């Protein structure tokens, strides 16, 4: 009886201490002006961009009411990095119903952790339009002493609607290179001694490293390009909670002329480490301690990875101490992506395991951060440099499920996938409760991919072995490898995806599904409406007009399907017309199968064949018509300078009734869409323009 009274007493004591923290959030459409140009597509939370900070203490009960005030269109909110029941995760059609116009939903969950996190929309491209905000969770007992704290929310902003950005990228993955003035060219390579690398990249059918897809109009810290973060005096210790809530931008973060002292990553405390700068991927968070050295104003600068812009915020007061400028990247660098990629390719898969259950993290056992930080200062901190405060190894006696996940994509057609399949083709990864699950990410692309798993913390296997850090998002560098593992004890359906918003939306995602979990009847009924289950259509076209030739093309495409109509007329002794109507089924990034009809001077031929991308980025079509005659098309774009290019085309036909054709242009590009110049058809030279749409 006495034992029963003790149990009841403990139960009521615990619940008496827990408090409910309630927030009310409204998502609405709002006009906004960040760059001097007002736009009407922005979405705000409680009228703010970024959204309000949600603040809790470990052990609290969270109660968050989310209201959709849009006239049309559903919304959602995902609590990024938070451990919670799957139905509260906020991913519409995967584990939580969407919130329809005029409706509200109340999220309720126990706060089981502390640290720096954030929240954002998981509906279409709403995150890019402004639906993101910070979450700060304090520990029950103060572990790290600081005089004050400040939240630093990094983001990217475009005056162009995100829906149009997606359409532009699907027209051409290099669409924004003109805006960013980062187009690679033969002359550019020659000027920096990178001609060999330029052609090596073309030979390998890659254009070179891609650091960013989009030409943004601004980069922001807490919604501003430049602002005062904290007024502080010499000797004050500031805890900076840095969150990369950008949709498609990695940032280098530096602090005036002083090293950054990193104490936490993705909400979990790590052994303190100093670095001159952080490379922080989308969705990652880092906590930094900064003791103001003098009564001066110190710049915290976030420079986007392709160095096309930055945002600043200031700490202190008085004379300003600026951060150093970043040098623009070498557009013609070889494919050796640095030490972090080399470390990422190390095989950590046979590490020993113990019995730590890291998904139910007890932050109170993480200990107080040591005051004596290692004196060495890292140049650029990555996940390889992070060390957990306690062993993170997993149960030895559990079954290990290992799965290789190749991050794949095609920049030209702007399609992204895992194991060469988009999420609409291969939706689920099934795992068993109680297993140790190990994912080996292999990046076969020239871009960084920040991979995020909902509902779990995973250990990123690095040089610190048993003390490999716990994270919820990990950067997988170009042509590199990362191995993560976690104990499967959070039954549910959870998104696994690249946190580059445009990569996720075009296919680089999966749903990790526990075999023991059964979704609610409501979710089973709604699941078929998930836009990730659909392969969306996009369109593009071109118009080329010259005094000696005319050509028009229109194309609609999905991930693997493409329909194309092309017609042209050239002036020889007289004007002659021809055209094609093709269906292409892409097999991989290089090979496609063709079925269609072509005509030359009203002689129609049914054709079948293949298209293939040769080394040096030469596009070929090899076709045979219904009369058994072969046709070979060759196309190549040569970028002489950043604005001067040549389109070369050859059409060879086995049928002697038709002439072989040759076309060569020399065009000056005014933008991605417009250019003017000369066109030679083998018979005549003409002047004209080209317009892409």
How would you summarize the topology of this molecule?
Layout: H1 2-17, E1 20-29, E2 32-33, E3 38-39, E4 43-45, E5 54-57, E6 61-68, E7 78-80, E8 104-110, E9 115-120, H2 126-129, E10 132-138, E11 148-157, H3 162-171, H4 177-180, H5 186-191, H6 195-203, E12 218-221, E13 226-230, E14 237-244, E15 251-255, E16 260-265, E17 268-280, E18 285-291, E19 297-304, E20 310-316, E21 320-321, H7 339-344, E22 377-381, E23 400-410, E24 415-418, E25 428-431, E26 436-443, E27 449-453, E28 458-460, E29 470-471, E30 473-476, E31 481-487, E32 493-498, H8 501-505, E33 509-514, H9 521-526, E34 538-546, E35 549-557, E36 561-571, E37 575-586, E38 591-600, E39 603-614, E40 618-625, E41 630-639, E42 644-653, E43 661-669, E44 674-680, E45 685-692
Parallel strand pairs: 1-6, 5-10, 11-14, 13-20, 17-22, 19-21, 23-26, 25-33
Antiparallel strand pairs: 1-4, 2-3, 6-8, 7-9, 9-10, 11-12, 14-18, 15-17, 15-19, 16-17, 16-18, 19-20, 23-24, 26-31, 27-30, 27-32, 28-29, 28-31, 32-33, 34-35, 34-45, 35-36, 36-37, 37-38, 38-39, 39-40, 40-41, 41-42, 42-43, 43-44, 44-45
Give your account of this protein's structure:
Among the domains are: 18-141, Sandwich (Immunoglobulin-like), CATH 2.60.40; 538-692, Beta Barrel (Porin), CATH 2.40.160. The chain is globular. Helix content is 10%, strand content 44%. The chain is mostly beta strands and 693 residues long. The strands form seven sheets. Strands 11, 12, 13, 14, 15, 16, 17, 18, 19, 20, 21 and 22 form a twelve-stranded mixed sheet that branches. Strands 34-35-36-37-38-39-40-41-42-43-44-45 form a twelve-stranded antiparallel barrel. It has a six-stranded mixed sheet with strand order 24-23-26-31-28-29.
């Amino acid at each position: 009886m006495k034992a029963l009274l003790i149990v009841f007493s403990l139960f009521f004591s615990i619940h008496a201490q827990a408090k409910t923290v309630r927030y009310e959030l409204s998502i609405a459409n709002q006009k906004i002006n960040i760059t001097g140009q007002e736009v009407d597509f922005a979405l705000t939370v409680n009228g703010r961009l970024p959204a309000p900070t949600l603040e809790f203490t470990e052990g609290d009960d969270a109660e968050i009411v989310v209201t959709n005030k849009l006239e049309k269109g559903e919304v959602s909110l995902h609590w990024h990095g938070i451990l919670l029941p799957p139905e509260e995760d906020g991913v519409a059609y995967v584990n939580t119903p969407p919130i329809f116009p005029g409706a509200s939903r109340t999220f309720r969950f126990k706060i089981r952790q502390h640290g720096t996190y954030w929240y954002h929309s998981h509906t279409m491209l709403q995150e890019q339009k402004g639906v993101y905000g910070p979450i700060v969770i304090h520990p029950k007992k103060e572990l790290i002493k600081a005089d004050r704290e400040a939240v630093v929310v990094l983001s990217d902003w475009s005056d162009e609607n995100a829906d149009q950005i997606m359409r532009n990228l699907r027209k051409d993955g290099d669409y924004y290179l003109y805006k960013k003035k980062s187009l690679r060219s033969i002359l550019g390579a020659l000027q920096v001694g990178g001609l060999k690398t330029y052609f090596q990249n073309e030979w390998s059918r890659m254009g070179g490293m891609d650091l960013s897809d989009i030409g943004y109009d601004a980069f922001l810290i807490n919604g501003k390009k430049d602002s005062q973060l904290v007024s502080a005096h010499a000797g004050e210790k500031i805890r900076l909670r840095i969150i990369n809530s950008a949709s498609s931008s990695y940032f280098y973060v530096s602090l005036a002329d002083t090293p950054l002292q990193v104490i936490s990553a993705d909400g979990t405390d790590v052994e303190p480490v100093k670095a001159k700068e952080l490379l922080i991927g989308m969705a990652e968070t880092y906590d930094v301690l900064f003791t103001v050295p003098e009564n001066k104003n110190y710049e915290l600068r976030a420079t986007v990875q392709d160095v096309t812009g930055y945002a600043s915020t200031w700490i202190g007061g008085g004379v300003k101490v600026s951060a150093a400028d970043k040098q623009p990247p070498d557009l013609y660098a070889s494919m050796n992506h640095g030490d972090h990629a080399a470390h990422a390719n190390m095989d950590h898969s046979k590490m020993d395991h113990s019995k730590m259950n890291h998904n139910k993290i007890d932050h109170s056992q993480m200990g107080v951060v040591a005051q004596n930080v290692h004196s060495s200062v890292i140049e650029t901190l990555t996940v390889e440099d992070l060390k957990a405060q306690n062993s993170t190894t997993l149960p030895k006696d559990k079954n290990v499920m290992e799965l290789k996940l190749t991050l794949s994509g095609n920049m030209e057609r702007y399609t992204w996938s895992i194991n060469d399949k988009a999420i609409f083709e291969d939706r689920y990864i099934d795992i068993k409760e109680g297993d140790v699950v190990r994912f080996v990410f292999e990046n076969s692309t020239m871009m960084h991919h920040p991979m995020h798993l909902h509902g779990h913390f995973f250990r990123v296997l690095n040089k610190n072995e048993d003390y490999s850090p716990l994270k919820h998002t990990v950067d997988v560098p170009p042509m590199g490898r990362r191995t993560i593992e976690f104990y499967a004890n959070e039954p549910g359906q959870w998104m696994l995806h690249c946190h580059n918003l445009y990569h996720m939306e075009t296919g680089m995602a999966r749903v990790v599904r526990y075999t023991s979990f059964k979704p609610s009847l409501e979710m089973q009924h709604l699941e078929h409406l998930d836009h990730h289950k659909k392969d969306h259509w996009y369109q593009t076209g071109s118009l080329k007009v010259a005094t000696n030739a005319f050509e028009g093309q229109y194309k609609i495409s999905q991930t693997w399907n493409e329909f194309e109509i092309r017609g042209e007329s050239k002036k020889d002794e007289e004007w002659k017309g021809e055209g094609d109507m093709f269906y292409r089924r892409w097999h991989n990034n290089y090979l496609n199968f063709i079925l269609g009809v072509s005509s030359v001077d009203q002689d129609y031929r049914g054709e079948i064949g293949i298209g293939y991308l040769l080394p040096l980025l030469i596009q070929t079509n090899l076709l045979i018509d219904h009369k058994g005659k072969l046709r070979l098309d060759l196309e190549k774009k040569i970028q002489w300078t950043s604005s001067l290019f040549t389109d070369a085309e050859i059409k060879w036909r086995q049928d002697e009734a038709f002439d072989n054709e040759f076309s060569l242009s020399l065009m000056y590009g005014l933008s991605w869409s417009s250019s003017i110049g000369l066109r030679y058809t083998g018979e005549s030279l003409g002047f004209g323009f080209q317009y892409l749409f």
